């Protein structure tokens, strides 16, 4: 090293630490020395073990048969075999991790069925041999005769759970996966209670001026009311109980005619919130004799459009006359049963204004809030303009014997627009959305159920509670807004009574859709329930929620 001072160069020796042997050899060979990074031995072993484990998993996934996959990806290295378990705190490598990028369009993955039968048909080991049949549950013979008329001989998981509890008179939250038989789970024990405690003609004459049912079922749609009404009528016919429906959409005179069509002693009334509220306001209906009330599809009933009518109905019912739960044979109380597959956070607050929700018992199945393991579910990342060609290809490649198809859209305008496109392509279909008039909606879903038309384009109006056992394909043309909506839509296939498990195809187009898909994929890989759902009515919602 040299420094110049006053034009004279002065040399100083550069003192360096002694070089290592490897660096000296490199310099002697004419190559510049390189910096050496030493990796700790423990870290090196851990990295090697992780690499061997990943290689083994990839080799096993490739070597196994396709039918043994839990999740099949377009990229085989991201597929997950059925035997592989992702830990609770482990972060799996998701197919949908990069789906927010535009270059991800065209990617897809699908969840393969891991079992053949619906979970609702499988009895838990702890309940084996207990209440294995409806007769062993102690139901009235006339109800057993009604079940024979419906060709139903074996109870499902939710029915084995709910019927004994509801027969004891407890108010309850009945939570079970879609398509598991919740309608019979609440109708059978509640009708059994009416048959075991009949009322004399004096009580009927006292309320002759207005219809006064002993049982009330509140449902969010006229289609669901008609469906549940048909099941209730079949059960009640051998017992001589009368069942009537009450739906709105017309003038007040229509409500009066619907109620007058029922005899004064009609035992059960099924109605939509708006129609029941209007009948109460006009004093066509009285709830003084009400023994039980069911709120079916509770999450839909808690929608802002139904909130006020529902609170008025609860205010008219004698809920505060006695606490839920039997305290004596002469207690005048109304048993409340809240039914659904998903529940909103404000449900306990609404019910708490009229009854003690702390006394409710929660009846929940083991498969609640889980993805159906017997239904194939495919997720396709697409651009918005590619959704229509993809749908048309699906429908045209569908075999004639492939069962019915449900196509879900997020808005009524999309239903109408898509319907016009299908008309242009000569694809016969029906449309169902909430903005239709009552006259236009009448009979549409019944026609679809009968098989007159095999394609139904609809909004989430058709995703709650309706019996779609003939459906074998659900297409989410618009990806649902919430995980709850996804569970209800996917529950339209693989129901109890379906001939085939069916499949679901979802088009993923928006960035916010990807957020939901990631949660679904994570739950599938970890074999856990979907996040953000609560099946307990006693838990208060968080502040600001």
Taking Cα atoms only, what radius of gyration do you get, to the nearest Å? Answer: 31 Å
CATH fold type of the largest domain = Rossmann fold
Strand order of the largest sheet: 4-3-5-13-18-17-14-16-15
Beta-strand percent range: 5-15%
Number of DSSP-assigned strands: 18
The CATH architecture of the largest domain is: 3-Layer(aba) Sandwich
The total count of helices amounts to 18
**What is the CATH class name of the largest domain?**
Alpha Beta
| Name of the CATH homologous superfamily of the largest domain | P-loop containing nucleotide triphosphate hydrolases
Structural class: alpha/beta
Provide the domain count. 2
Overall geometry comes to globular
Describe the 3D structure:
β17 (471-476), α17 and β18 (503-508) form a beta-alpha-beta unit. It is globular and about 100 Å long. It has a 9-stranded mixed beta sheet with strand order 4-3-5-13-18-17-14-16-15. Strands 8-9-7-10-11-6-12 form a 7-stranded parallel beta sheet. Strands 1-2 form a two-stranded antiparallel ribbon. The longest helix has 23 residues, at 41-63. Helix content is 34%, strand content 14%. The chain is of the alpha/beta class and 545 residues long. Mean pLDDT is 83; it is low at 321-331 and 540-545. The chain has 2 domains: 66-118 and 372-526, Rossmann fold, CATH 3.40.50; 119-364, P-loop containing nucleotide triphosphate hydrolases (Rossmann fold).
């Amino acid at each position: 090293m040299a420094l110049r001072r006053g034009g004279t160069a002065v040399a100083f020796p550069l003192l360096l630490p002694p070089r290592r042997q490897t660096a000296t050899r490199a310099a002697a060979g004419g190559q510049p020395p390189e910096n050496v990074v030493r990796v700790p031995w423990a870290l090196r072993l851990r990295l090697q073990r992780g690499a061997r484990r990943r290689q083994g998993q990839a080799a096993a996934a490739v070597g196994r048969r396709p039918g043994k996959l839990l999740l099949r990806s377009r990229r085989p290295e991201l597929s997950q075999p059925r035997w592989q378990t992702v830990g609770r705190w482990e972060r799996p490598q998701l197919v949908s991790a990069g789906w927010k990028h535009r270059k991800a369009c065209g990617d897809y993955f699908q969840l393969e069925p891991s079992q053949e039968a619906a979970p609702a048909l499988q009895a838990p080991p702890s309940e084996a041999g207990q209440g294995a049949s409806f007769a062993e549950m102690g139901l009235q013979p006339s109800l057993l005769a009604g079940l024979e008329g419906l060709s139903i001989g074996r109870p499902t998981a939710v029915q084995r759970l709910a019927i004994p509890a509801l027969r004891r008179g407890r108010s309850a939250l009945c939570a079970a996966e879609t398509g598991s038989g919740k309608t019979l789970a609440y109708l059978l024990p509640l009708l059994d209670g009416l048959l075991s405690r009949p009322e004399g003609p004096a009580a009927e004459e006292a309320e002759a001026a207005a219809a006064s049912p002993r049982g009330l079922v509140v449902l969010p749609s006229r289609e669901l009311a008609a469906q549940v009404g048909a099941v209730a009528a079949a059960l009640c016919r051998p017992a001589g109980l009368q069942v009537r429906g009450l739906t709105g959409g017309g003038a007040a005179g229509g409500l009066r005619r619907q109620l007058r069509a029922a005899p004064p002693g009609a035992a059960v009334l099924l109605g939509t919130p708006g129609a029941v509220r209007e009948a109460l306001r006009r004093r066509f209906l009285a709830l003084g004799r009400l023994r039980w009330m069911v709120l079916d599809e509770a999450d839909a009933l808690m929608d802002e459009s139904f909130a006020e009518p529902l609170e008025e109905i609860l205010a008219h019912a004698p809920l505060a006359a006695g606490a839920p739960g039997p305290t004596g044979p002469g207690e005048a109380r109304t048993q409340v049963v809240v039914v659904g597959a998903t529940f909103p956070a404000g449900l306990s607050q609404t019910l708490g204004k009229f009854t003690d929700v702390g006394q409710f018992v929660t009846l929940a199945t083991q498969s609640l809030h889980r993805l159906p393991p017997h239904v194939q579910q495919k997720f396709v990342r697409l651009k918005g303009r590619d959704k229509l060609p993809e749908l048309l290809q699906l429908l045209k490649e569908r075999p004639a014997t492939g069962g019915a198809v449900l196509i879900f859209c997020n808005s009524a305008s999309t239903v109408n627009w898509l319907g016009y496109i299908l008309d242009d392509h000569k694809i016969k279909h029906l449309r169902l959305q909430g903005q239709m008039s009552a006259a236009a909606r009448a009979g549409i879903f019944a026609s679809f159920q009968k098989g007159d038309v095999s394609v139904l384009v609809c909004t989430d109006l058709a995703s709650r509670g309706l019996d779609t056992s003939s459906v074998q394909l659900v297409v989410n043309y618009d990806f649902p807004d919430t995980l709850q909506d996804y569970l209800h839509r996917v529950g339209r296939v693989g129901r109890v009574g379906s001939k085939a498990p069916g499949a679901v195809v979802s088009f993923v187009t928006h960035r916010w859709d990807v957020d939901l898909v990631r949660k679904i994929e994570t739950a599938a890989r970890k074999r856990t329930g979907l996040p953000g759902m609560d099946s307990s009515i006693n838990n208060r919602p968080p502040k600001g929620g």
